[in-house]
Structures
1.
Amino acid sequence: MHIMEGFLPLQWCVFWFALSLPVVAYGAYKMSKMMKANREILPLLAVSGAFIFVLSSLKMPSVTGSCSHPTGTGMGAVLFGPWMTSVMSMIVLIYQAIFIAHGGLTTLGANTFSMGIAGPIVGYLVYKGSMKYGINMYIAVFLAALLADWSTYIVTSIQLALAFPAASGGVLASFEAFLAVFAITQIPLAIVEGAVTALMFKYIVQLRSDVLVKLDVASPSIINKLKEMSA
Amino acid sequence: MKMELIVAAILVVFIGAFAYVSSTGNHEWSGADVQAGNTIDKLTGGTYQPWANSIWTPPSGEIESLLFALQAAFGSLIIGYFLGYYRGLAKARDAATSEEQ
């Protein structure tokens, strides 16, 4: 999903920065407030950020004969919501832009929007929606992480299509062209990401279920049921 | 243990799919990010020129993989440290409650 350095016309770089920066700024504000009020949550915040670090560094081969990488944002989105996840994603994207020439500083706004904002919003809504319908929490996490990952790449395709409409067929035709690059490639990776994220939540339920209740991720009755199931 | 097995099974299927695809025909296994750049070339007829370059590019694939590995290692370290810390806390808490009884 990294749009490469210089590969977006200037006006689109500005546009995506204008959308992303306020979100990241508010996320940073929320994060610092939460860190002051609740030191206990800090380790989980660090783990969520580190999870993005690990997963977004893994470039995996897919069924289409090309490689792509998961985003790792589903965990942060479920635990802390999209605001704070946008901050963590931007940090990772800056690292990759500066040291690995992946993505870029001019395209940082667009990449932060797809990976740090759009994907996590989808993941967050999917999680909350699934929980409302009484779906098993681990399955809800699986779906949230899977769709956060996949939608990130759909949004990247939209961003590129908007900037580079095809001569014949316009934005829609080039959206299809970019989807052909990203959409199928990403499906197996998104499934793996969903599964690994769900596994992480199993450990969090085992070790710090109190924090899940405090963050309003799950109610005590759901946690107790999950613990009974695994016991 | 059940969930670990499910995740392992998904990984096995993933690896199996890779083995199957790579045994049937030639694939470049190039990055999707770069392919998107090629699609831009195709859509614009090669007229689009990137107007900025990465401020620094790893001088070789080896150095690039080093930096990716460092990224993953750093992340894994933090995850392992804190999950271990939580596990220790939980154990200490259990020990304290059983002593009280």
Note: The radius of gyration of chain B is 23 Å.
2.
Amino acid sequence: MALPAIALFIAAIFFAVKKKNECWKWFAAGVAVQYITTLINTGKDELAGLISGTKADAVTALTGEQWTTCTVVIVLAGIIMLLCRYPRYEASQTLIASLLCVLGGLVIGYIVLLVIEPSGAFEAIQTILENFLTYSKPKSQMKYLGQTLVRTAPLLMCALSVLFAYKVGMFNIGAAGQYVAGACAALFFGLYFKAPWWVCVLAAMAAGAFLGVISGALKTFCNVNVVISGIMLNWITLYITNMVLSMDGVKNPMSPYTIQLRGVNPNGLLPQMDLHTLFGNEKSVTIAIPLAVIMAIVVWVVLNKTKFGYELKATGYNFHAAKYSGMKEKRNIILTMAISGALAGMGAALLYLTGIEEWETTISSVPGMDFNGIAVAFLGGLSPIGSILSAFFIQHITLGGSYVDTTYYCAQISSLISSLIIFLCAFVGFIRFAMQNRIRKRDEAMAMRKDMAAKGGSDT
Amino acid sequence: MEQYAVEMLHITKRFPGIIANDDITLQLRKGEIHALLGENGAGKSTLMSVLFGLYTPDEGEICINGHPAKIKNPNDANALGIGMVHQHFKLVECFTVLDNIILGVEPVDKLTFLQKKQARDKIMEMSEKWGLHVNPDALISDITVGMQQRTEILKMLYRENDILIFDEPTAVLTPQEIDELMQIMKNLAAEGKSILFITHKLNEIMAVADRCSVLRKGKYIGTVDIKDTNKAELSRMMVGRDVKFAVDKAPAQPGEEILRVENMTVASRQHSNNAVKNVSFSVRRGEIVCIAGIDGNGQSELVFGITGLEPLAGGKLFLKGKNITRMPIRQRSISGMSHIPEDRHKHGLVLDYTLEDNMVLQRYFERQFTKKGFLRRGNIRQYAEKLIDQYDVRSGQGPVTAARSMSGGNQQKAIVAREIDKDPELLVAVQPTRGLDVGAIEYIHQQIVAQRDAGKAVLLVSLELDEVMNVSDRILVMYEGEIVGEFDPKQVTVEELGLYMAGAKRQTAAEETNDETVKE
């Protein structure tokens, strides 16, 4: 049904990337096919209604689900083509590359679903993309959009943590541990000391920063790779956290989870500032969301506008030159890891202090939040602002995956599809590189033609 | 029999905004050493990249041994017997010499196990035959630049290449190593290998080449027989005007002491011995003191010690009478020390930064560039534009050009501009003209002399004897971490210096004082 349309959109994008002028035809054809197939699908009655009635009927003739898919694909394809008109801007290149990756992930995910069980494949992809939109009532939609956003905030913080370290030349895979440490500190302060929320946030940041400093110090003084120390510390931190959060007064004696913060220390919860009223009174919507966005902007400003960012990036790009110019290169590396750790730790606080979930003290694997953070950072083109969008997208499809119909597919399929898309996101850099190469080649060809024309002119 | 090993006919290669090669013809005879001469940016490297398959030419054709050849990548070039020693060596730092030589053509037995013994024998034999002394088991990161280059040459010979391209091979070598290399090149040519020798050092061309082709600004100027020409003609062809080889300068008028080094000792990173041993000297206002010596005799460490990149193992440093022995690098810089580093890619520039960001690398924290922690982009841009203008730093997009994309000469000019414009009391310049063309060298020498005349103290470290003799007012020769002699350039010959540099002679303390008194 919608397949031919999607094929045409892909053709449109292909031509958009390859030749700028051809793409609109294919795009238009895709819209038309989508339109017509939908009409046919929805049955004769509506078709008859359309013929006799007004155009508005046609719009209502689309079923809700088809409408969403159709819109998503049209918007995606449209954005890509629009961006293709400005291939020279770095931001536009990154966006095109990111969107292509997302699209590629969806297509591969779709193929995987087709292989497993064709009949529900398209629906499943639709469900993943729709996430909270699968609910029909606007109020529930807003509620679950709220939940998605609540989980986006910590993901964004993890992405910021990863990209901040990356800009300074380090791959902070230890953000996972720093995130866990943040969760530990936030919950411990909130539950054990009944501390107010801001103390918990600061404690989480301090805990994350502390772990970061360990990695950073090991790197500068013993030349231990940050990745190695990071992975090791992830596990150490995880089990320490499980131990600390199993203490009396912190862990719920009846379950493996920590006590609900809402019950014992409402002050420990992040304030809502009435934001929850926007999202169907979803209680977990708090200032965490704007706070994360503000942090993204702060990170962008620090990296790009300040002397501090100038020093950090110089250190990351060329350690020796930083030393030569008298920067405190060792201090910079440790400081970077501290900040990166603080961001990850704060991310955990922004999740666990909303009361949306409790820490499971029997957990034996590091939460995936940080690893998704890596994908988010790359999908966002390593820009803090881009990460805001990509964090939302990744969280969107991750949660969307949980709505996939389990009568057709086993429960793991949701994670599989989301992870396929996340995996594809790693190719952003590659696609950008290919695009830049293409532009360079085209410029050369242009220069050649111009030169030939000039030569021809002078000959005559 | 075909007369030419390589014929590149009417090669044209365009890049956006520039024609790198414009209708260039180059014919390399079998068994000859053919020099390719041109300034930085004249198109030599592009032409060689075309020959080596890194670029496809827009027009023109290439014939190898008389047959038209399509070279699409370096593997094709290799299959046609073309080998290249790149200016920046393509070696795996953490591999041994042996591993690097056999990399890509590893001898294996039936079970694909490496047969290193066999390779080692072959390499040792070649090494003996050509006088290319290497230690096959040493790591690349541990050996001298000269030995790295010999490894590169062995790499080509191991692959039995007949057409050898040397891209500025002498830029990093000591005078003795250069002589050795020249001899090796002659031997190779005598054995029937054809050699393309890219350089802008006229002395070397006069010494070894049979013929020389000259490029200027992407255009082919001409090919001359070396026996029918001279340095002046070649340089005129290359630069398009007459070039002065001697540096014009008035006699030095040394003032008060700016830098005093007392019994300085610096540990080595390579070996357990000290790299600099108990060295004492001083540099006065208005003079250029030159440290001469063969590469690896402690000059780098001496400079690292003075500039603060390495801690001192012993001794004291004074800048304008102030003890700076333990002063951090930033403080030294603020107190009036400028440093043009030996390795512009490693220390001098942040290659991924723009030109303007690199221009303020030593001063970004000053009031005019930073306010309350925020960079003042407008002022940085203005300052960078001023320097670019004043020091004629050329780049594709002005201040926002990525430093990485600039030519070596212009990168160096940017560093020189940055360091001189800081208005230092002491300028420490280490091989400031390394890898640069005649025009750029002339310019940088003028700048250094101008600094001296403006009353600055200059400490110049150079491996090139021409530079040492021409620019300096006082020469200190370093050998194995010690200063073995002090000379007045007007009263010493290059040969005499060579003996000191090689460790065959050294002045005793008495002689030194004697020498001083003679000068007075």
Note: Residues 428-459 of chain A form the longest helix (32 residues).
